Amino acid sequence: KKFFNLNNFPKVKILIVNNCEIELLEEYTFSNFSQLEILDIQSNKIESFAVNSFNGLRNLIYLNMNGNRVKIIKKRSFFGLSYLKKFDLKENLIESIEEEGFYGLNNLTELNLLKNKIKIIKKKSFYGLSTLQILNLRQNSIEFVEEKGFYGLFDLIELDLSTYFLKTIEKKSFSGLENLRKLDLSSNSIE
Hints:
This protein has 191 residues and is an all-beta fold.
């Protein structure tokens, strides 16, 4: 089931489309909402979205995709959302984040990936998120953090990796996190 086509709504600032059983976001899905600041599409069945699904949302500051079925964050999936500040992707089925998956989110300060199925934090998974301050990876299936897994997170203050599965952290996994104030590694079996 695709997102229904809506006519031109240039003055709408908040769009809430929850529990509508949407499975797919095609290219330019929200292009008719040029002034949108808040997009709440939680509790749908979104499994995939085109790279340009969010194109045209120049003013978006909050995106809530909580409770969908997204499995992979592909390279530059959210490119163009340069003003986004808060992004909620908790309780999806995310297993993998490709290198530069969040590239282009130049003003993002908070990213919530709680309760997904991420197993490995790959090199440069969060590259391009230089303004990110809070990253929640709690209750994932993370077993391994590659070297430079958090590369580019220069403003990160809080990182939650409490998971029950984390065993291995490469030596330089946290390099560049000079501003980190809170690191939660609770309930892991780190060797």
